[in-house]
Amino acid sequence: MTIQYAAGTLVVAETTGRVLLMCRSDGSGWSHPGGMTDPEDECAEETAIRELVEETGFPPILTEQCGHTQLAKLDSGEVVLLDEDDDYDSSVVLVYDLFVVTVREEFVPKLDGEHTAWAWVHPDDPEDLTGSLHPGAARALIWLMEEYG
Questions:
Q1: Helix, strand, or coil here: 12?
Q2: Which residue from 56, 37, 55, 142 is spatially nearest to 97, judged by alpha carbons?
Protein backbone atom coordinates (compact mmCIF):
# COMPACT_ATOMS: atom_id res chain seq x y z
CA MET A 1 0.00 0.00 0.00
CA THR A 2 1.27 3.48 -0.86
CA ILE A 3 1.04 6.09 1.86
CA GLN A 4 0.33 9.66 0.76
CA TYR A 5 1.35 12.74 2.72
CA ALA A 6 -0.45 16.03 3.28
CA ALA A 7 -0.34 18.98 5.65
CA GLY A 8 -2.56 21.79 6.81
CA THR A 9 -3.14 24.52 9.33
CA LEU A 10 -5.68 25.28 12.01
CA VAL A 11 -5.70 29.09 12.17
CA VAL A 12 -6.83 30.38 15.58
CA ALA A 13 -7.63 34.06 16.21
CA GLU A 14 -6.28 35.19 19.60
CA THR A 15 -8.95 37.84 20.15
CA THR A 16 -11.92 35.48 19.68
CA GLY A 17 -10.58 31.95 20.11
CA ARG A 18 -12.29 31.01 16.86
CA VAL A 19 -10.87 28.82 14.11
CA LEU A 20 -10.99 29.46 10.36
CA LEU A 21 -12.85 26.80 8.39
CA MET A 22 -13.53 26.78 4.67
CA CYS A 23 -16.22 24.95 2.70
CA ARG A 24 -14.60 22.73 0.10
CA SER A 25 -15.92 23.00 -3.42
CA ASP A 26 -15.58 19.23 -3.95
CA GLY A 27 -18.54 18.66 -1.64
CA SER A 28 -16.54 16.99 1.15
CA GLY A 29 -17.53 19.56 3.77
CA TRP A 30 -15.88 22.24 5.88
CA SER A 31 -12.17 21.97 6.58
CA HIS A 32 -9.08 23.98 7.39
CA PRO A 33 -6.51 25.06 4.77
CA GLY A 34 -4.36 22.15 3.66
CA GLY A 35 -3.36 19.85 0.84
CA MET A 36 -1.06 17.22 -0.56
CA THR A 37 2.71 17.35 0.00
CA ASP A 38 5.08 17.05 -2.93
CA PRO A 39 7.57 14.64 -1.33
CA GLU A 40 10.33 15.58 -3.77
CA ASP A 41 10.07 19.34 -3.26
CA GLU A 42 8.77 20.20 0.21
CA CYS A 43 8.47 19.19 3.83
CA ALA A 44 5.22 19.16 5.79
CA GLU A 45 5.69 22.67 7.19
CA GLU A 46 6.37 24.05 3.70
CA THR A 47 3.20 22.36 2.46
CA ALA A 48 1.13 23.83 5.27
CA ILE A 49 2.45 27.35 4.58
CA ARG A 50 1.96 27.03 0.81
CA GLU A 51 -1.60 25.80 1.23
CA LEU A 52 -2.41 28.52 3.77
CA VAL A 53 -1.28 31.22 1.33
CA GLU A 54 -2.95 29.60 -1.71
CA GLU A 55 -6.29 29.01 0.00
CA THR A 56 -6.60 32.17 2.09
CA GLY A 57 -4.23 34.76 0.64
CA PHE A 58 -2.98 35.28 4.19
CA PRO A 59 0.77 35.89 4.51
CA PRO A 60 2.27 33.25 6.83
CA ILE A 61 4.91 35.64 8.14
CA LEU A 62 2.21 37.04 10.42
CA THR A 63 1.53 33.68 12.05
CA GLU A 64 3.17 31.82 14.87
CA GLN A 65 3.24 28.06 14.99
CA CYS A 66 2.08 26.92 18.41
CA GLY A 67 1.24 23.26 17.99
CA HIS A 68 1.69 20.21 15.80
CA THR A 69 0.32 16.69 15.55
CA GLN A 70 -0.08 13.99 12.93
CA LEU A 71 -3.37 12.51 11.84
CA ALA A 72 -3.76 9.35 9.82
CA LYS A 73 -6.54 8.34 7.49
CA LEU A 74 -6.96 4.59 7.65
CA ASP A 75 -8.10 2.41 4.76
CA SER A 76 -11.43 2.10 6.61
CA GLY A 77 -11.91 5.86 6.18
CA GLU A 78 -11.48 6.56 9.91
CA VAL A 79 -9.24 9.49 10.88
CA VAL A 80 -7.13 8.99 14.01
CA LEU A 81 -4.24 10.64 15.80
CA LEU A 82 -1.04 8.99 14.62
CA ASP A 83 0.57 7.61 17.76
CA GLU A 84 4.14 6.31 17.65
CA ASP A 85 3.16 3.44 19.93
CA ASP A 86 0.37 2.15 17.68
CA ASP A 87 0.99 -0.04 14.66
CA TYR A 88 -1.05 1.43 11.82
CA ASP A 89 1.50 0.53 9.14
CA SER A 90 -0.77 -1.83 7.25
CA SER A 91 -3.85 0.40 7.30
CA VAL A 92 -2.59 4.00 6.91
CA VAL A 93 -3.34 5.52 3.53
CA LEU A 94 -2.65 9.19 4.39
CA VAL A 95 -0.39 10.85 6.95
CA TYR A 96 -1.47 14.43 7.64
CA ASP A 97 0.76 16.89 9.48
CA LEU A 98 -1.45 19.40 11.26
CA PHE A 99 -0.03 22.71 12.46
CA VAL A 100 -1.74 25.27 14.68
CA VAL A 101 -0.96 28.92 14.11
CA THR A 102 -2.30 31.94 15.90
CA VAL A 103 -3.19 35.28 14.40
CA ARG A 104 -4.04 38.37 16.41
CA GLU A 105 -7.35 39.12 14.67
CA GLU A 106 -9.74 37.29 12.40
CA PHE A 107 -9.18 38.19 8.76
CA VAL A 108 -11.17 37.87 5.54
CA PRO A 109 -9.65 35.10 3.41
CA LYS A 110 -9.46 35.38 -0.37
CA LEU A 111 -11.24 32.27 -1.68
CA ASP A 112 -9.66 30.24 -4.45
CA GLY A 113 -11.41 27.65 -6.60
CA GLU A 114 -11.07 25.00 -3.89
CA HIS A 115 -13.61 26.66 -1.56
CA THR A 116 -17.05 28.22 -1.80
CA ALA A 117 -17.30 29.88 1.63
CA TRP A 118 -15.42 30.54 4.86
CA ALA A 119 -16.34 31.02 8.51
CA TRP A 120 -14.68 31.65 11.86
CA VAL A 121 -16.15 29.18 14.34
CA HIS A 122 -15.61 28.16 17.93
CA PRO A 123 -13.77 24.80 17.83
CA ASP A 124 -16.14 23.25 20.37
CA ASP A 125 -19.27 24.38 18.49
CA PRO A 126 -18.85 23.96 14.71
CA GLU A 127 -22.58 23.20 14.34
CA ASP A 128 -23.01 26.85 13.35
CA LEU A 129 -21.90 25.81 9.88
CA THR A 130 -24.34 25.05 7.09
CA GLY A 131 -23.20 21.61 5.95
CA SER A 132 -20.97 18.96 7.41
CA LEU A 133 -17.42 18.89 8.66
CA HIS A 134 -14.80 17.02 6.66
CA PRO A 135 -13.77 13.95 8.77
CA GLY A 136 -10.18 15.19 9.06
CA ALA A 137 -11.32 18.63 10.23
CA ALA A 138 -13.67 17.07 12.77
CA ARG A 139 -10.80 15.05 14.25
CA ALA A 140 -8.51 18.09 14.14
CA LEU A 141 -10.97 20.19 16.16
CA ILE A 142 -11.27 17.44 18.78
CA TRP A 143 -7.48 17.35 19.09
CA LEU A 144 -7.35 21.17 19.35
CA MET A 145 -9.88 21.18 22.19
CA GLU A 146 -8.07 18.35 24.01
CA GLU A 147 -4.72 20.12 23.74
CA TYR A 148 -5.71 23.75 24.24
CA GLY A 149 -9.24 23.62 25.67
A1: strand
A2: 37
Better-scored residue on pLDDT, 14 or 59: 14
- For the chain, percent of residues with pLDDT exceeding 70: 87
CA angle 101/136/38 to nearest 5° reads: 70
Element (H, E) at 146: helix 135-148
Tell me how many helices (H) and strands (E) the chain has.
2, 8
pLDDT for residue 35 is more than 80: yes
What is the rounded average pLDDT for all residues in the chain? Answer: 85
Tell me which of 22-26, 58-62, 93-97, 106-110 is least confident.
58-62
Domain layout of the chain by residue ranges = 4-148
Q: Which CATH class is domain 4-148?
A: alpha beta
Handedness of CA 87, 44, 65, 57 (dihedral sign): negative
Question: Is the Cβ–Cβ distance between 93 and 1 less than 8 Å?
Answer: yes
| Adjacent-strand bridge partners of 5 | 95
User: Would you say 3 and 91 are in contact if contact means Cβ atoms under 8 Å apart?
Assistant: no
